[in-house]
Design a protein that fits this description.
NAD-dependent protein deacetylase; metal-binding; Rossmann fold; 9 helices; six-stranded parallel β-sheet; SIR2/SIRT2 'Small Domain'; Ssirtuin_cat_dom; alpha/beta; transferase; three-stranded antiparallel β-sheet; EC 2.3.1.286; binds zinc ion
Length: 280
Amino acid sequence: MTKRTSLEEFVDRHRRLFVLTGAGCSTNSGIPDYRDAEGNWKRTPPVTYQAFMGDLATRRRYWARSMVGWRRFGQARPNGAHRALARLEAMGRSELLLTQNVDRLHQTAGSARVIDLHGRLDLVRCMGCERRMPRTELQDELVRLNPAWTDLDAADAPDGDADLESAEFQSFIVPPCRHCGGVLKPDVVFFGENVPRERVDTATHHLAEAEAMLIVGSSLMVYSGFRFVQTAARAGKPIAAVNLGRTRADGLLALKVEQSCEAALAFLLGEPAVAAAPAG
Ligand SMILES: [Zn+2]
């Protein structure tokens, strides 16, 4: 209860907030987190940019897993944390919502001042001609080309991936770009790939305009997100974080709330405080 009050006070005290969100924001929407409370990988790290671009077998494996995982990922709906942050924006209090998530659930919940730091999984980009297409369109094509795979079920995994370790990926057909024959890639920033410079610069500009920073559901283990926390700390901006477990920024925080994102932000929706959130 006192922790919730502290966060409410933090939000009250700082009129303009730079909000940075991560996977913890979407776990209650059924999209699992990559990392445990210690910030370690819960399962095998995701595919790297270099492996995806350099190796057809890796792309077969990626798209096969993605095709199976997409069915449920594509149906994920926003939860109270997304709605609370949309409400914060509607109150005129959000300078920017910078999300490391690629699920677009903030936008679905009504947030408009959003930058998708790591891109968006609902688009596919051709690495040859830069054309973009809806992921749903590619899904239809993948299903058409690989009918034998459509009956498979698998546990959900982050980024629409799915565990299919024992399956035979060699038989999986990955279509090329229909315009130029180039390699199709989800329009997200893979591990080993840089966030586009312009995206970083725009977010940095908004950070300079904000009075304080609010981190929601991120352990900040990825540098592309952590860099903004470093920038805020250097500028002397107060930083608060909501996260179940350790974050890389713990030493820089003015306030740390170890609750689920939904419970910690419930006050923004005028809902009574939720008692202790279940751990893990
Ligand atoms: Zn192309």
